[in-house]
Amino acid sequence: MRTKVFVLATHPMKFSQILPSTVYNPLESFKSVSSLKQQLRIQRPDILIIQEPIDEGVSWRLAYEWKQAIGCEILLMVPLRQYDQIVYQLNGSGVFVVSDPSNAQTVYQACEQLRIKREEIQKYQGEIERLKKKIRNDKLVNRAKLVLIESYHWSEEKAHHYIEQIAMNNSITKVDVAKELLKNVDEKK
């Protein structure tokens, strides 16, 4: 999976030499906040690297705000003299802070950590969506069972078996059977 990287820096490091293009591609650089904001309206990066000084002292606020608004991983590179203060300011925000100048290995490792974190988050979001869908489907089937129980005075077990039997006989899912049952009930009302 490729990782889209945006770099906001007035004099950027040679990120294209540090980050392999087989993984970090595309890599786009922006020299001003306004040009980056324009691009952010069109597309979102996976990783945003902000290299100080953009506007001395403002980049940590941008990093914090964009972390909340955009939802991408952010690497903030700040002058060593400000490092402790900015790390304190951004504590718990999810923004990854390194001192600038940093060597290529530090920048690469930071980006790798952010990329891995992003992939894990996407994996968990996919799992959450799968579980939400399962819960919605279970609710549909349970609602259909309830209709059968109330309409025919069946037991929960009999209603469940009926839905399963219809699904097997017609080679469809229990959810499809439940949807059809509920649709028929709504049409009769």
Automatic annotation (TrEMBL):
This is ANTAR domain-containing protein. InterPro entries: ANTAR (IPR005561), CheY-like_superfamily (IPR011006), WH-like_DNA-bd_sf (IPR036388). Residues 121-182 form the ANTAR domain. Gene3D superfamilies: Winged helix-like DNA-binding domain superfamily/Winged helix DNA-binding domain. It comes from the Bacteria. Transmembrane segments: none annotated. It holds the Pfam family ANTAR. Keywords: Coiled coil.
